[in-house]
Amino acid sequence: MAQKSTPAPRRMPRQDRSRAMVDRILDAGQEMLIAHGYDGASTNRIAAAAGISPGSLYQYFPNKDAIAAAVIDRYSDQLSARVAARVSERLDQPAPHYVRESIAALLDALDVHPDFLRAVMEQTPRLGSGSKLLAFEQRIGELTVAYLTINKGVVRPDATFETAAWMLVRMVEHLCVRYILDQPAIDRDTFIDEITVMALNYLRPWPTPPEDCFP
Amino acid sequence: MAQKSTPAPRRMPRQDRSRAMVDRILDAGQEMLIAHGYDGASTNRIAAAAGISPGSLYQYFPNKDAIAAAVIDRYSDQLSARVAARVSERLDQPAPHYVRESIAALLDALDVHPDFLRAVMEQTPRLGSGSKLLAFEQRIGELTVAYLTINKGVVRPDATFETAAWMLVRMVEHLCVRYILDQPAIDRDTFIDEITVMALNYLRPWPTPPEDCFP
Amino acid sequence: MAQKSTPAPRRMPRQDRSRAMVDRILDAGQEMLIAHGYDGASTNRIAAAAGISPGSLYQYFPNKDAIAAAVIDRYSDQLSARVAARVSERLDQPAPHYVRESIAALLDALDVHPDFLRAVMEQTPRLGSGSKLLAFEQRIGELTVAYLTINKGVVRPDATFETAAWMLVRMVEHLCVRYILDQPAIDRDTFIDEITVMALNYLRPWPTPPEDCFP
Amino acid sequence: MAQKSTPAPRRMPRQDRSRAMVDRILDAGQEMLIAHGYDGASTNRIAAAAGISPGSLYQYFPNKDAIAAAVIDRYSDQLSARVAARVSERLDQPAPHYVRESIAALLDALDVHPDFLRAVMEQTPRLGSGSKLLAFEQRIGELTVAYLTINKGVVRPDATFETAAWMLVRMVEHLCVRYILDQPAIDRDTFIDEITVMALNYLRPWPTPPEDCFP
DNA sequence: CATGAATGAGCTTTCATTCAT
DNA sequence: CATGAATGAAAGCTCATTCAT
Predict the structure, then answer these.
(1) Measured between CB atoms, does D211 come within 8 Å of chain C?
(2) Testing the interface with D: which of C170, C189, C190 to mutate, by most D Cβ within 10 A?
(3) What subunits make at least 3 CB pairs under 8 angstroms with A?
(4) Are B and A touching by the rule of 3+ CB pairs within 8 Å?
């Protein structure tokens, strides 16, 4: 009856436009980080790569570091999502397969943008400690604790779950990262096998000492 | 005896003077890296901290990156030496003790300058890839291969030594670094125990099937 | 009576709305000038403080300087009004009392917004020379000329009224401003007494030589 | 006997070179302040006007404000010196002549760079309060107190010297400044006469009220 | 060899102003 | 009229590097 009080919906309402702009900036930031490293990724270059003026950057981010942090945060979210997507599909698989799959998922996720991974790991100073990368580690750690708690039957009884999770998460993460960045002469499947073994054996309850066996 | 034209024999011949100068610069560089991070460690600051003029830096190093690289190289050498010193004392110990000791040695060595470790790991871009840190990893890797070869009896037969060494070295190194930088709520001895377990179990041969034991 | 198409008579016709808007902007401008000085009083800040968009400022003022000028003009008008109000009440008082009161009125008027007075005097460049502050001086000057003309009997005969007025006005104004801004260790009443003396004595005729008195 | 330990004096030893450079910068800063006002006197412009690179400015001054402050300080010193030079020549003159001469000296000193005086007074925000301009006022104030103390015989007995000096100094200074900046239609000599009268009459001990004379 | 003043490109960031919506 | 995103020139300042002394 009365006219619509809200104007006709535009193709791009404010919030979407803003989100698109932020994304363009983050894309540009990521590009520049890859191409020039953190120091070389000047705000002017980022603005140019995003096709906007230098001043416009500052309508979306308070300073350069915030851009870099947001780029890394977005990357963390992508990592997180990619890993979660694949892992959640195999929740029903037996434990060792599940572990192997998780590691494979992480490795593949990291391998989507190896050049950016390198830029982040080797060129970018650790900015505000509240990055989502740490949250990612944290979250994986908690999942690991949960996993260990559920499977406590196959874990050696003297292990502290928190400690074990802390070690496992960082071990797996770092080896996967280094595998991609350093490209050692190790076959991909072999590598995944080995890292799976390292993870599983770490907490494996070993049978009573062999010397009992051969007295 | 002393020649007449030269007033007195210099305590420091050219090469030694030069070496001493380089060391002062490296000390200054290390200080500035710790105090201000890579970006904040300007050549002017380094020169001032070394008590020389900015121009003189370039008599000893071609550019800023070379200074940082040299600082890190020297640190790698110190690490290397500290670890080697302690490890070589226990060459005769039984394998598990030896491994544990090596890990403890590394952890202690990294803990000598935790602030510099943080500066290098979190603030300093990876410079020329020829750093001695990689050489350190390389060397430890070779030692590990040797160790595995010697102890091949207690290693699961399907393992490739090179692969295993690559994984072990990076795992141990990274976990030790993160332990120092992140200070997780894990007791130091416990941590060393756990990392030792992870290393040893990784290659531990799954005992011949239990049914062999109880025929 | 009321037309049908317009839902209800607006309380505020166009011109009044506009005037109200201008006042809000001037309030905001004054605030920002006080809080941040001229350079720190950015148009964005003023717009925000006025609760409008940056673009809307330019509906009412052609540029930033015009805002500052208008703020100062309004202040001049307020000063003017405050002084005039008090002075006009005492037009019947004897001359010295009248002068004293005028000075006191000015001092009080300046002391209503000492922080803004400081911002204007110490932080704000002199903008377009047509400011009302000069008009204020001009007007007071004319009043002074009139006053002198009326009281020419007690003024030394060699004085040019225009010159005397020019000097008196600037002297009184500046000393009052400095008194407020610098807060010297002078009692307020004493200060007013002194400035009154300075003004009155300036034009006081040197009495006919004493020897005329005692013949 | 022994060789001179200090090397042969160069045409321009370090300190002199430095002083010359500082002077060039101050000249350039003064020019730019005059030509473009404080806001328009950018560091780049100053550097260009001084014929040096922008970076070189910062070897002599920590920031833009320091340059402006130094320019004003130097000007204050020049003012101070010019006034002092002329005043000290007439120390033996009778009081009223001495006062008149001092005022004339100040007026002439201010009139040497009227454009810069305008730039300072109308365009430049008050920077660090410790400027030499205030010291100049302070110093003149103290001299005035001394003068009044010496001549206390011809000063009305109820005057506080500190208060009187505060008022006199600011009155004289401001009127002279305004005279130069506003160029009122007042003859220079007349102006000096008037200001002298204002100063002298302010403290003049007036004879017993005239009404005693004509009962 | 040592010096340190000088360089100058380039950095991050601001802000008065405009204009499509 | 109001909006506020976008602009882009320009600001203040830094710093790795050079070179005349």
Answers:
(1) no
(2) C170
(3) B
(4) yes
Higher pLDDT, A197 or D13: A197
Nucleotides of F under 7 A from a protein CB: 1-21
Q: Taking a contact as any Cβ pair under 8 Å apart, which residues of chain C between 7 and 66 contact chain D?
A: 37-39
Confidence band of D131 (pLDDT split at 50, 70, 90) = confident
Cβ contact D42 with chain F strand, < 7 A = yes
| Distance between CA atoms of residues B161 and B148, nearest Å | 7
- CA D50/CA A92 separation, integer angstroms: 77
pLDDT (0 to 100) of residue A215: 36
> Does the pLDDT value for residue B154 go beyond 60?
yes
Write b or e for each residue in B169-199: b if 16 or more Cβ atoms lie within 10 A of its Cβ, otherwise e: bbbbbbbbbbbbeeeeebeeeebbbbbbbbb
D105 contact partners, CB below 8 Å, separation of at least 6: D82, D83, D86, D87
**SS3 at position B4:** coil
pLDDT surpassing 90 at residue D15 = no
Q: Residue A213 has what pLDDT?
A: 42
Alpha carbon of A199: minimum distance to chain B alpha carbons (Å): 8
Model confidence band, residue B211 (pLDDT cutoffs 50, 70, 90): very low
Contact B25, B67 (CB under 8 A): yes
Residue pair C117/C181 in contact (Cβ under 8 Å)? The answer is yes
Section B107-129 average pLDDT: 92
Whether C and D touch, i.e. at least 3 CB pairs below 8 A, reads as yes
Quickly list DSSP for B77-133.
HHHHHHHHHHHHTTTTS-HHHHHHHHHHHHHHHHTTSHHHHHIIIIIPPP-STT-HH
The C1' atom of E13 and the CA atom of A44 lie apart, in whole Å, by 11
Please report which confidence band the pLDDT of residue A66 belongs to, taking 50, 70 and 90 as the band edges: very high
B/e letters for A3-27, b = 16+ CB within 10 Å, e = fewer, are eeeeeeeeeeeeeeeeeebbeebbe
Q: A103, A121, A124, A166: which to substitute to probe chain B, counting the most B Cβ within 10 Å?
A: A166
Q: Mind spelling out the 3-state secondary structure of chain C?
A: CCCCCCCCCCCCCHHHHHHHHHHHHHHHHHHHHHHHHHHHCCHHHHHHHHCCCHHHHHHHCCCHHHHHHHHHHHHHHHHHHHHHHHHHCCCCCCHHHHHHHHHHHHHHHHCCCHHHHHHHHHHCCCCCCCCHHHHHHHHHHHHHHHHHHHCHHHCCCCCCHHHHHHHHHHHHHHHHHHHHHHCCCCCHHHHHHHHHHHHHHHHCCCCCCHHHHCC
Domains plus CATH for chain D?
16-61 (1.10.10.60), 71-205 (1.10.357.10)
How do residues B33-71 score in pLDDT, each as one tens digit?
999 999 999 999 999 999 999 999 999 999 999 999 999
Average pLDDT estimate for D55-64: 97
Averaged pLDDT for residues A17-36:
94
Which residues have C-beta within 8 Å of that of residue C11, sequence separation ≥ 6?
Answer: none
C174 vs D contacts (CB less than 8 Å): 170-171, 174-175, 178
Give the mean model confidence (pLDDT) for residues B116-136: 87
Quick one: closest CA in C to D198, which residue? Answer: C202
